[in-house]
Design a protein that fits this description.
Length: 698
């Protein structure tokens, strides 16, 4: 029974949080006239009454009801008889609905709703949220639900696995959720009651995931057994926070305060402080940070952030860190301006920086940019200074754009005159004797710093995109080539030859091989550093042996013909001994020194319909140690999962409860088990053509 309490309390944290996202967009629709249709419409001086399959659309919100009445004087809409309130894929139904067209206040009585296109922490939610309420009120900026019930379980009432009842819930979108007098039910049996829950709904809040409603219990090698508790509170109706109390068997007791505050209508901020009172020597933890945003007179925005932390334990020492940044900025229709100061200190190292930025749109085609920086870096032994200035004037022309720049770095001055883009003539794809080609010619005047070279430049390119030929029944040949000629007003010239060929062979239904040859060679000289072009000659090969429903074995490697150096061979085995069993093994082999480097493994075994075992590991054959080794046992309980996770390298384990509607991110470790050694789209020449043309001769 105790485990059921833990599971259901975790559910309330996620379920209540998501409701604000359901209503988040309703006050953001464009202002459009009201439209409606019905089988019968009656107009009087006092009222407008619609009857029979009534549909009303206003500001992107759709009302449906058997009868809709609009008071022409008060501008209050009343819908009765199977009333529905819809936006997108989300839907609310109830017995009576009132909507004030002036104040945008909507009230729905005896309501039932589903939410499908919900976003939580800027990520789409999988599945559906089901909720009920005696009264649901929306005023355009916040939501109030009285006597509500919620669940993510899709089993029909009253058989769903759990539901949550709350006397009152206030939701302030993208800010916070306040739930009062909550009761949690497993089936029809009440499990536990809570007083008040306050949850941060800020999408990028760096600590909102720490606001757990259940104690986090686990074990690791440094702290021993631990339990972490977080208690929410509300202060003054607008400010709220979380009190953290943690117990560590080996290292002591930790406590902290996380507080979010409002500064009237001008700004807001957050404050966080946490400290561990050490039980053993050599262990010390402390963290402090503060965030502030405030609107100053003249529409100037002030932002300030400060962080300070100490984290020490046996065998590890890091000097205390202090980091602070303050900035003032203002953005107008034609210009923007900002000034900032930053300070970073760790031990004997201190960095300070001052920055000033200004942009101005002089006209539709002319704009300016100015950046000034001053930075110092000091340590126990030395202190250095750096000044940097960059001024730019940009003109957007009909044929080309021109940039005039001056850059000064610690006394060194550079000047730039850039024209972008070049004047370029390019053909459409053509063909000669069924061989496709694309030709282009670019003309420009270049000035390059710091070399000081000024010259005109002509660039001619002839590209033969990849062409796929069928050679017999089981072979496909892919060939591409190109030529590039560069000529300069200084008399120098440079040309480049490049080619690519690949052949894919199928040996029956279970074996593939692939070989690719890539060549590029420049000749001549270029006075412009921008025109540097590399040299390479590579041969790569791959082998795949597979049975679609049972196993997949692949290996790939390469050889640099010019340096006589082999690339590491990557080998991968995917094995499916049973329908719901997936085993992946991969390894790297150093062909130059004839030795295996590592073994990467991943297992996913469905032990029974509700129990799944997962394993990930990376074994370094040089050190003969595991870089990581993780185990997970997952219990599927229809609408939620319980995961027992063990991380071998840290001697740490913990229990994780997740709703299927709110899946946690799964990391891909090692070689992606879903990815074959030979890309499946190789048979489609368009995919390789695009990549080849983007990289060719650059």
């Amino acid at each position: 029974m105790k485990s059921n309490k833990i599971i259901i309390i975790a559910v309330i944290f996620l379920t209540l949080s998501v409701l604000s996202a359901y209503f988040r967009g309703w006050a953001e629709e464009p202002n459009i006239p009201i439209r409606f249709s019905a089988q019968e419409v009656e107009y009087t001086k006092e009222k407008t009454i619609a009857r029979g399959k009534v549909t009303v659309i206003y500001r992107g919100v759709k009302f449906e009801a058997d009868r809709v009445e609009v008071d022409n004087k008060s501008q209050i809409l009343t819908a009765t008889g199977h009333s529905a309130f819809t936006q997108g894929k989300n839907r609310l139904t109830g017995e009576v609905l009132t909507y004030d067209l002036k104040t945008e206040r909507a009230v729905l009585w005896n309501a039932y709703g589903t939410a499908k296109d919900v976003v939580y922490q800027d990520k789409p939610i999988q599945g559906t949220i089901f909720f009920w309420g005696k009264q649901i009120e929306w005023n355009g900026t916040s939501l109030k639900i009285l006597n509500g019930e919620f669940t993510t379980c899709d089993i029909p009432a009253p058989y769903y696995h759990y539901h949550i009842e709350s006397k009152e819930i206030d939701i302030f979108p993208r800010d916070k959720l306040i739930a009062r007098k909550d009761s949690i039910y497993l089936g029809n049996k009440k499990i536990i009651g809570l007083k008040t829950i306050v949850i941060s709904l800020r999408p990028r809040d760096p600590r909102q995931r720490q606001q757990n409603l259940i104690p986090r219990v686990g074990y690791n090698d440094i702290d021993g057994w631990f339990a972490k508790e977080a208690v929410s509170y509300l202060w003054g109706g607008k400010d709220y926070g979380v009190v953290h109390v943690d117990w560590f068997e080996k290292t002591g007791i930790g406590a902290g305060l996380e507080h979010y505050y409002k500064l009237g209508n001008k700004g807001d901020g957050s404050f966080y402080f946490y400290k561990l009172n050490p039980k053993t020597s050599g262990v010390r933890r402390r963290e402090f940070n503060n965030r502030l945003q405030y609107l100053l007179p003249g529409n100037f925005n002030l932002t300030w952030a400060v962080d300070s932390s100490i984290n020490e334990f046996p065998g590890f020492f890091r000097p205390p860190i202090y980091n602070s940044q303050v900035a003032i900025s203002r953005a107008g229709l034609r210009h923007s301006i900002s000034a900032s100061y930053s300070l970073y200190n760790q031990g004997d190292n201190t960095n300070e920086g001052y920055n000033f930025l200004h942009t101005y749109k002089i006209s539709n085609s002319l704009s300016s940019f100015l950046s000034v920086d001053y930075a110092t870096n000091s340590s126990f032994f030395s202190k250095t200074f750096r000044t940097h200035y960059l001024g730019r004037l940009t003109n957007l022309g009909k044929i080309f754009d021109t940039d005039l720049e001056q850059e000064v770095t610690s006394g060194t001055t550079l000047y730039f005159v850039n024209r972008e883009p070049e004047i370029t003539f390019r053909t459409h794809p053509l063909s000669v004797w069924n061989v496709p080609y694309i030709a282009s010619l670019s003309l420009a005047n270049y000035h390059e710093e710091p070399t000081g070279i000024s010259t005109n430049r002509q660039d001619f390119q002839l590209l033969l995109p990849d062409k796929l030929w069928q050679l017999g029944k089981n072979n496909k040949l892919n060939v591409g080539a190109g030529f590039r000629q560069l000529m300069y007003g200084t008399g120098e010239a440079k040309y480049v030859l490049a080619s690519r060929a690949g052949i894919l062979t199928r040996y029956g239904p279970h074996v593939n091989t692939r070989f690719d040859y890539n060549y590029q060679q420049p000749y001549g000289f270029s006075p412009i550093q921008y025109d540097f072009i590399g040299t390479y000659e590579l041969l790569t090969g791959s082998l795949e042996v597979y049975n679609k429903d049972y196993f997949h074995l692949g290996a790939t490697t390469g050889y640099d013909i010019r340096s006589h150096f082999f690339q590491n061979m990557v080998a991968q085995l995917k094995w499916k001994p049973k329908k719901d069993w997936d085993i992946t093994l991969s390894s790297n082999y150093d062909m130059n020194h004839s030795k295996w480097l590592n073994i990467n493994s991943q297992l996913n075994l469905q032990l029974n319909p509700t129990l799944n075992f997962q394993y990930w590991s990376y074994y370094d054959l040089n050190t003969q140690k595991f870089t990581y080794q993780d185990f997970a046992l997952v219990k599927d309980m229809h609408c939620w999962e319980a995961r027992l996770i063990y991380r071998g390298n840290f001697q740490e384990f913990w229990l994780q409860i997740v709703l299927k509607a709110f899946p946690s991110e799964s990391a891909v470790i090692g070689v992606n088990p879903r990815g074959p050694i030979i890309p499946q789209n190789w048979w489609d020449p368009s995919s390789s053509n695009i990549q080849y043309q983007q990289q060719y001769l650059r």
